[in-house]
Amino acid sequence: MQPVVFAGADLDYVIRYDGSSHGEWNRTEGPIVALRKSIRTHYLREQRYRCAYCRMEKKENHGLTWDVEHIIPKAVYPRFLYEPLNLAMVCKECNIAKLDQEVLHRPLRAALALPDRSEDYKIVHPHFDVYSEHFEVIFVGGRVTHRPRNNEKAKETFLMCDLLRFSYAFGEWEDFDYEVVKKFSDFVDSCPPDASPGQISAFMRTIRFTDNRDF
Fold first, then answer.
1. Cα dist. 182→141, 145, 146, 167 in Å?
2. What's the confidence (pLDDT) of residue 49?
3. For 120-136, what is the mean pLDDT?
C-alpha cells in the first residue's frame, strides 16, 4: 500500500502542526476538513474499500462508515498525527474496539521517529505486513470468520479489533462444519448425472471458502 503524499494546501497545513495539539484532528471546519477528505480518498482507493484490520469491503466514502485510523494512537503519540505510514482506513467497528490500545512492543522515547519495521508492532500493520500471512478469511453461506495463522500478531489483532464479532454469526448454526457439508451437498444435488469426472473436478475447484484479503 502506498502512503499518502501531501501537497498544496494539505502540505502547508501538515507542516505547521506543532506535534502535540492532536485535538485539531476533530475540528469540523477549516483546512483539516479538506485534509481528512484527501487522506480518506487516498487510502480507500489504496485499500480497495477494505478495512485495514478486518478486510471487509464497504463501498461507501463517507465518515459514517469509515474512520481515518491512527495505527499508533494519536492520543498516545500526537507527533505521528500526520505521519503517512501511521494512517489507514478502518471500519467503525474495528476502530471502536481498538481505541487507544498500545500497538508497540516497547514505548518510544520522545525524540524517536515512527517505527518502520513489522517486528516493532504487536498487531498486523497495514503498511508493513502481508495480511494473508497472518489471517485466513473464510466465507461460508454469506457469513464471515477470521482464522488467525499465528499466536503473535494475528492473535493480538484478532483480540484488539474484536474480530470475534464475525464468528458470533455462526452461533445460529448447529455447526460451522454443517454449512460446509451443506454447500458440497447442494453441489452434488445440482450436478448432472452424466457429468464426467473431469467436469466434476473442474467445477469443484470453483467452490471456495477462503479469499485472499491482501490490498
1. 9, 17, 20, 18
2. 97
3. 98
